[in-house]
């Protein structure tokens, strides 16, 4: 079976709809045809300051949401990144193969350090993509389901795998990004020139755990474009196109079909119907997440079991890598 690895940052409170459509939906689908490893990347989270109690809580809420969305611990290995120290062992080796300039060109680092200020940016934020590469390579993953914004990190991962292989002999599978057509970049509802993200004001971001009434209101208040025709045109009508993309992804109807369905109707009709489609999707997810969080012991058991299975695989890769780079085996 092909192997799959992906990760998501624990975000205070809730994932957003872009996470689901760009990545998590593929996580769920791939469980049937691959050997899947999915982690909540708490090590990555501390590249920006975190409140300790909140981080712990977010990690649990994230795991519960993944289960509520359909990640099945019987078919996938679900774990918390910091429970598998092999990621860090491999990360160090990969840091020593990464050029300083190469890391400096990563746009996510550039964006974040610009936003938060380079003075406050940590070395951890700088080496963030190298740890991500290690997350992937330590499982010898073939495919990595992610949204469009992770493409550059996947390229770095492939470069590092290839570099290691040519320097030390074939050790790593060179992974491929698995980016869905259509919903790989969901846009903010208020600023449709930017991707939906928790770092933008909440009015433009659909959080999966929001009250459904709040979600419906956000969608009804989405920024649309000039003109009145409902048709997909990413350049002239980014707002409307984004709404059609979300509708299509959740309803399973093609964008073309939706254009016909809404022909002669107004933006208000599109938003009203989309609000229903989205709330129908999020309402049970929210309900199920709450139920899962009620049984914390069971959640912790699932994560402990996942970490144990993940470590069995990761340990073998690290042992081989340590041998290849010439570390003396402990006696
Ligand atoms: P993160 O936590 O920011 O996002 C998780 C996943 O959601 C996707 N995504 C989106 N897709 C479409 N439209 C959007 N508006 C949108 N916003 C987010 C992201 O592309 C991602 O797939 N660096 C990663 C986490 C990570 C990781 C890994 C991923 C750490 N190690 C190993 C894959 C493999 C990140 O910050 O994702």
From TrEMBL:
Pfam families: tRNA-synt_1b (PF00579)
Binding residue positions for L-tryptophan: 135
Residues binding ATP, per UniProt: 9-11, 18-19, 147-149, 186, 195-199
Keyword Membrane: no
Reactions performed catalytically: tRNA(Trp) + L-tryptophan + ATP = L-tryptophyl-tRNA(Trp) + AMP + diphosphate + H(+)
Keywords of the record: Aminoacyl-tRNA synthetase, ATP-binding, Cytoplasm, Ligase, Nucleotide-binding, Protein biosynthesis
Subunit annotation: Homodimer.
HAMAP family per UniProt: Trp_tRNA_synth_B (MF_00140_B)
Record family assignment: Belongs to the class-I aminoacyl-tRNA synthetase family.
Record's protein name: Tryptophan--tRNA ligase
């Amino acid at each position: 079976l092909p192997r799959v690895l992906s990760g998501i940052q624990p975000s205070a409170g809730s994932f957003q709809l872009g996470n689901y459509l760009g990545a998590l939906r593929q996580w769920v689908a791939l469980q049937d045809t691959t050997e899947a490893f999915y982690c909540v990347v708490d090590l990555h989270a501390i590249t920006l300051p975190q409140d300790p109690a909140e981080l712990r809580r977010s990690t649990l809420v994230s795991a519960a949401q993944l289960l509520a969305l359909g990640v099945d611990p019987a078919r996938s290995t679900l774990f918390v990144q910091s429970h598998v120290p092999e990621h860090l062992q491999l990360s160090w080796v990969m840091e020593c193969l990464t050029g300083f300039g190469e890391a400096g060109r990563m746009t996510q680092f550039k964006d974040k350090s610009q936003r938060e200020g380079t003075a406050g940016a940590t070395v951890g934020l700088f080496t963030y993509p190298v740890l991500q590469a290690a997350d992937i390579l330590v499982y010898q993953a073939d495919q990595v389901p992610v949204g469009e914004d992770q493409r550059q990190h996947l390229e770095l991962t492939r470069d590092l795998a290839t570099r290691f292989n040519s320097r030390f002999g074939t050790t790593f599978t060179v992974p491929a990004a698995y980016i869905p057509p259509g919903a790989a970049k969901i846009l903010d509802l208020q600023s449709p020139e930017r991707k939906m993200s928790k770092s933008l004001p909440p009015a433009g971001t659909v959080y999966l755990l929001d009250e459904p009434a709040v979600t419906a209101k956000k969608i009804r208040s989405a920024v649309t474009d000039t003109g009145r025709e409902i048709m997909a045109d990413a350049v002239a009508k980014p707002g409307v196109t984004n709404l059609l993309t979300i509708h299509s992804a959740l309803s399973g109807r093609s964008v073309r079909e939706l254009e016909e369905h809404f022909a002669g109707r107004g933006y208000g009709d599109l938003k009203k119907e989309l609000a229903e489609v989205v709330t129908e999707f999020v309402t049970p997810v929210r309900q199920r997440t709450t139920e899962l969080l009620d049984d914390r012991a069971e959640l912790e058991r699932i994560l402990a079991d996942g970490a144990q299975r993940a470590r069995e695989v990761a340990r073998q890769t690290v042992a081989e890598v340590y041998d290849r780079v010439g570390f003396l085996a402990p006696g």
